[in-house]
Design brief:
The structure is a single chain. About 35% of the residues lie in helices and about 5% in strands. The longest helix has 26 residues. By secondary structure, the chain is mainly alpha-helical. The protein has a two-stranded antiparallel sheet.
Length: about 675
């Protein structure tokens, strides 16, 4: 059972923004909490109020009260390499090569309401119940000031709303519990609330929490990661954008999705006003950025953080690596998760190298002139080796064929001064936009995350290619396909590079800085805003204003200067906006939810010789031909690798838009209806 696999340490160490003294809570409190909300398999609706310890011993002591609060935070999900969640492995942008990951059988259609994969239903309800217990008892602690009691109650309101949001986006409409129920409550008779009612309650909780929280925590870094007004408003932006999207706004395919008493759980009539509410919520966050400079909220640019000159590539790399930078809205300290991600995305040997980007996301990235690769004016070339290097490949004019020049060049690459393709790289990867190079490690690209030691770099190269630069060898027989005792490697011919520290030493496992998980960043809010505006006011000047900000940071021209014909055209603009999300937010978990909320995940495979779809999580998924040629003879001159081939045929049914309510919960409650098509 998934819950029982959670360690005590993982349950305790959640609110990492507290000081170490606050985090290391007494084991007795963790034990009480675990017994109260995590023991066994029965769900929240079966629990009795006296299961929670609310005695004077607990609630009179500040340390124990704050320990209880830390445990309310404990159900916040951590990425954990995306082994436990589906947001990468089930989306069309990534292949996780490991068959031990639960996404592997699900992509082949092996899934049912009895499956235990990412079963958070019971856990989050228990956390919701714990938030009520805390809110109802914290005032009993004489060691806390009234201001701190008010803040803590606001925090658990935020957490309650956030857990309901996590339930809503994964399972759809849920049973809303708005207060501690009496001991004789008939939980089995409770019904799911309509989707819009769930949204309203989440928004209500965010507003109530924001009223008693500070705007930001800039003056008190130990609280970084705790909810504040900006986080509450950002969650509203995300929830309302989700609610305004086609899955839940006028989707007639949910017409029969009803409670046993006939109450519809989804509104099948389109309401344009939902997009207006979503835009207004995003606008509130933008206004804080523009009107409250003390909030330090904006898109990250390297030249605003110590560098003399703006470098779009370095900006796009560092926004994910610089801890608590100006773009981070909601996150958590977590060296372990980022370091483990680097081990799993860096090429072998000595790394696991199995998080493969799909050809679809590779093709989505723009050319450096801002055009899509299918634009006749883009300059894109599909085949052949590039003759000329990228303009930024060697900005300091290093003598790359000398030992001293090699070391200098490696330093430039690792410090993000040198970037872009080299002469001899495949043309498919030539002259692409900075975000491409910040996100994708392709065949023959120099691996940044290794020291300049020639022996350590040559360890990552085949005998005929040991030149001290260490290029990724993702073809059949290449060194990057070896991982010590493991047989894991990218099945797509690419590796995700985003969130990899180029200054890390993946040979010796040395990481030069501390990292954090980023749950929400400012770019997401800007993308939410322009998407919402486009749906009801496609000529609004703010669309260009804030879209241009994203493109400017990315180092590519405005979409309206490159494609002026789309201006004011809702459908055309929408296509480009969704593509911008696909690029800007790749490998961050957004693609999974965007494809679902836009009701595009079931786009069928046309069956053609190449992938012509922009969306579709079923059917053939494509990459390079990693099994072509002779492994004893292949090298960087082998062109057979660069053929588009499907690496997997996935199954996606309409039922998969939502996780099924766990069958054990359905069996317990006569009024709990299952999700459509399960």
């Amino acid at each position: 059972m998934e819950i029982n696999t959670l360690s005590l340490e993982n349950l305790i160490l959640v609110s990492e923004q507290h000081s170490k003294k606050q985090i290391k809570m007494k084991k007795i409190i963790a034990f009480i909490f675990i017994l109260g909300i995590l023991t066994g398999c029965s769900d929240f609706l079966d629990k009795q109020p006296d299961d929670m310890k609310t005695d004077d011993m607990v609630w009179s002591d500040r340390t124990q009260v704050e320990g209880y609060l830390a445990n309310v935070y404990a159900a916040l999900p951590q990425p954990n390499l995306h082994q436990d969640d589906p947001w990468l492995g089930l989306a069309d942008e990534v292949d996780l090569s490991w068959t031990v990951y639960n996404t592997y059988p699900i992509n082949l259609g092996n899934w049912s309401p009895s499956s235990w994969f990412y079963r958070k239903y019971e856990l989050w309800y228990r956390a919701i119940r714990a938030s009520f217990v805390f809110e109802n008892n914290v005032d009993r602690c004489p060691e806390l000031s009234n201001d701190l009691k008010t803040q803590y109650k606001a925090e658990v309101k935020f957490l309650r709303g956030y857990y309901y949001w996590l339930l809503l986006r994964q399972y759809g409409p849920v049973v809303l519990i708005k207060e501690i129920q009496p001991s004789d409550a008939d939980y089995a008779s409770f019904m799911r609330a309509p989707f819009d009612e769930c949204v309203e309650y989440i928004i209500q909780l965010m507003d109530e929490a924001a009223a008693d929280l500070p705007l930001h925590w800039q003056n008190d870094p130990k609280w970084f990661g705790k909810p504040n007004q900006i986080i509450c408003k950002a969650v509203k932006s995300i929830v309302l954008t989700f609610a305004a999207s086609p899955q839940w706004n006028g989707n007639k395919e949910y017409a029969d999705f009803k409670n046993p008493d006939g109450t519809p759980l989804a509104n099948t009539t389109y309401d344009e006003n939902k997009w207006k509410k979503a835009a207004a919520a995003s606008r509130e966050v933008i206004d804080i950025s523009e009107q409250r400079p003390e909030a330090n909220l904006r898109l990250y640019k390297n030249n605003e953080h110590g560098d003399a000159e703006f470098n779009p590539y370095k900006s796009c790399v560092d926004v994910h690596l610089k801890k608590w930078n100006c773009e981070v809205i909601f996150g958590a300290n977590s060296n372990y998760h980022t370091e483990a991600w680097m081990i799993h995305t860096s090429p072998g040997p000595k790394n696991l190298g199995g998080v493969g980007a799909t050809q679809r996301v590779v093709d989505a990235f723009l050319m450096e002139n801002g055009r899509t690769i299918d634009d006749p004016q883009s300059g894109y070339v599909e085949e052949g080796f590039s003759v000329s290097p990228h303009k930024n490949w060697n900005p300091n004019n290093r003598s790359v064929n000398t030992e001293e020049g090699r070391k200098q060049m490696i330093a430039d690459i690792r410090q993000c001064e040198a970037w872009g393709h080299w002469a001899g790289d495949w043309n498919m990867y030539a002259n692409r936009e900075p975000r491409f190079y910040a996100s994708i490690l392709y065949n023959r690209r120099i691996i940044p995350q290794l020291p300049d030691d020639i022996d350590k770099r040559n360890y990552h190269s085949s005998p005929g290619q040991k030149d001290g630069y260490a290029r990724a060898e993702l073809y059949y027989g290449g060194v990057s396909r070896q991982s010590g005792s493991y047989t894991f490697f990218s099945r797509t011919g690419y590796l995700a590079f985003k969130n990899n520290d180029p200054m890390a030493n993946m040979y010796d496992r040395i990481f030069p800085q501390e990292y954090s998980n980023v749950f929400i960043r400012y770019a997401t809010i800007l993308l939410n805003y322009i998407e919402a505006l486009n749906e009801y006011d496609p000529s609004n000047s703010d669309i260009r204003k804030y879209w241009d900000l994203i493109r400017e940071r990315a180092g590519v021209p405005s979409v309206f200067s490159v494609n002026p014909e789309i201006a004011g055209q809702k459908d055309l603009q929408r296509d480009f906006i969704l593509r911008e999300r696909q690029i800007e937010l790749c490998f961050e978990g957004d693609r999974y939810f965007t494809s679902r909320r836009r009701w595009l995940a079931h786009t069928p495979d046309g069956g053609g010789p190449v992938d012509s779809r922009k969306f579709g999580d079923g059917g053939r998924m494509w990459g390079m031909d990693i099994n072509a040629g002779d492994p004893a003879k292949n090298n960087f001159s082998f062109t057979g690798f660069y053929k588009r081939v499907p690496f997997e045929t996935r199954v996606f049914e309409k039922a998969y838009y939502l996780f099924p309510i766990p069958q054990t919960e359905i069996d317990k409650s006569k009024n709990l209806v299952q999700n459509p098509w399960w």
